[in-house]
Specification:
11% strand; Rossmann fold; 21 helices; binds 6-O-phosphono-beta-D-fructofuranose; six-stranded mixed sheet; 11 strands; alpha/beta; 525 residues; 46% helix
Length: 525
Amino acid sequence: MTTQTTFPLPVTLPAWQHLVALAAEEQVSLRDRLAEPERAQRLTWSSCGITLDASRQGIGTEIEHALLELAAQSDVAGQREAMFRGDPINTTEGRPVLHVALRGDAAGGPWGSDVQALVHRELDRVCRFADEVRGGIVRGHSGEAFTDVVNIGIGGSDLGPRMAADALAHLASPTLRVHYVSNPDAWALWSVLRGLDAKRTLVVVSSKTFTTQETLTNAASAQRWLTDQGVPADAISQHLVAITASPAKSAGMGYDPQRTFLFWDWVGGRYSLWSALGLPLALGIGSAAFRELLAGGRAMDEHFRHAPMAENLPVRLALHGIWNRSFLQRPTQLMVSYASRLVRFVPFVQQMDMESNGKGVHIDGHEATVETGPIVWGGLGIDGQHAYFQLVHQGRHAIPVDFIGLQTEDTPLPLAATHHAVVNLNLRAQAQAMALGRTPAETEALLLAEGADAATARAMAPHRSFPGNIPSHILWLDRLDPERLGALIALHEHKVFTQAAIWRINAFDQWGVELGKTMAKAMER
Ligand code: F6P
């Protein structure tokens, strides 16, 4: 690997230098920015059932133009087309990156007809199998229909389908429950298996490599449980499914090729939900809803490829993130969801973002000259309000926030509309409170108006004031359905891609997870 750069490093671009200069200036407060006429209209864009409100980002038109210029000078458009074309942009592994092809329609895409045919053949197999299990056509060894599926996988072989299953829980089959086990701690598996009837249980082993120690430990243990519970050894394959990009390995371990569903080395684990790896999700919500999820991802792909940069949702999210991370030196990105069904969305994006962009070298091995991926953290916003939001509002860290909310909610509870109003009121109030803050003078005046004496008001004011100026995005989903979810996921994938394209890092390898694995193996010997 060479340390000679084959492209202009980000810091050498005129737009980068312009942004460095802009960041060194005193920043206009969000209070002043929010007072700009028509700011909300100017900094809000919608596509694919998602609206991005960026009015509370600390950017004015000069910063905005410089960021868009940075995207142009970094050739985001050219790098984007290289991905869609299937160029080997994952250079350290010599692979193309084609999760986008997994959601391509029959009309195909720039990746070509060979990839298209492969994808559609496997997608059809996955969908048929999911519907046959759900319909009781595929059954266990005793002839009884399956009632439970246990997906065993970790990282990208767990987080995506598990997150989507929660997000789309309203579509889950009442007769086929899907459980997810990732941790090799015995309790994690036992706590699921102890409630199940082996005759009616299908075990899905999801592993791209089929070498992951945690997954293989759980898989062997689940097989042992099946046989101990009376599944005859010669019928065990009726209770097992493998999902992998290494079918030779799974076949070597006795998994039936007919019950093995494939994806390929050009699908990164954290980008694999759209592939056969989505089978556990399809088992839960049905193949039609799974295809709708793919359609949502495809719609966002189209938007990403064709919308002008200035209105391009993934590009805007990426550019504002880069402003906060690389120019204002803010190390973390808080994400908070105000839809409880999106409870696992943050851990999912955390892997997608941090495993992709947590890199210390540029693509050609040159030590990184810029700050790269942020620490992504968070969870459910309403719960966070009663916990770590204290630090966000008044602590010593400057933390950009992404809020995710739903415009409409159709949970069939009598008072659902009241619940929804409470939730969204809180989301709006938090975003506004973080942006505007409250000065000591305002706090003192408020306390006096509430009847405090002058000494108390003065003494309390520093404790009850808020610096504000906390930048945020609000992402509003029209509603939470498979298509919107697909678009939301693809939006974040393309955001991560765009940031990597500007930082000139490889978002698609993950060598950082290897050293610990190697040491664990060495210690085993
Ligand atoms: O250790 C990290 C990782 O390689 C992730 O990138 C991946 O999603 C996960 O492990 C699981 O890997 P596999 O699907 O090969 O079991």
